[in-house]
Amino acid sequence: VMKEYLDRPDETKATLQEWNGKIWLRTGDIGYMRDDGLVVIKDRKKQLIKMAGHSVFPKEVESNLMMNEAVNEAAVAGLPDPEGKVGEIIKAWVALEPDYIGKITEEELKKWAQENFSKWKAPTQIEFIEEVPKNVLGKVQRRALQEADPLYKK
């Protein structure tokens, strides 16, 4: 796939690793292979949220939020817990369906999530936005939302 990262030996060592005599590229994708051989990608390791000892996949929370008829799109990411109790909190940025704008609040959607998700998968914070940012390929840009948040720390 590649020989190395240019002038980045530590990153090369972490990404290209030998196993059973072969070099493997560790992509950071988390997934599994089904019995029929299909590979299912759940999420990315770097985006995994650590909430009170639980590992939470952002994609799963996003999919669950979109089961609410008011939600058009959602992006989810982990942010540092301002109280320092649970490691990271889950924040969701939600774009509403046009018919629901002004008819549902962030608190109402948060309450719905608490009633319909596992306790550790319900977003701690929800913020309504006009549109979820995506790149040219249509991939949700969670990092842009995360880094723009006041709680974000590098």
Describe what this molecule looks like in 3D.
The chain has 154 residues and is of the alpha+beta class. The chain contains four helices and nine strands; from the N terminus they run αββββββαββαβα. A three-stranded mixed β-sheet has the order 7-8-9, with helices on both faces. Strands 1-2 form a two-stranded antiparallel sheet. The chain has a two-stranded antiparallel sheet with strand order 3-4. The model has no long low-confidence stretch (mean pLDDT 90).
> What is Rg?
18 Å
Helices, by number, come to 4
Terminal residue distance: 30 Å
The major pleated sheet works out as:
3 strands, mixed
Which sequence of SSEs, written as H and E, runs from N to C? Answer: HEEEEEEHEEHEH
What's the arrangement of strands in the largest beta sheet?
A: 7-8-9
Overall 3D form: elongated
Indicate the mean pLDDT: 90
Quickly give the structural class: alpha+beta
The helix content is 10-25%
% residues in beta strands: 25-35%
Number of E strands: 9
Unreliable segments (pLDDT under 50, ≥5 consecutive)? none
Secondary-structure blueprint of this entry?
Elements: H1 9-15, E1 16-19, E2 22-25, E3 29-33, E4 39-44, E5 49-51, E6 54-56, H2 58-65, E7 71-80, E8 88-96, H3 106-116, E9 125-128, H4 142-148
Parallel strand pairs: 8-9
Antiparallel strand pairs: 1-2, 3-4, 5-6, 7-8
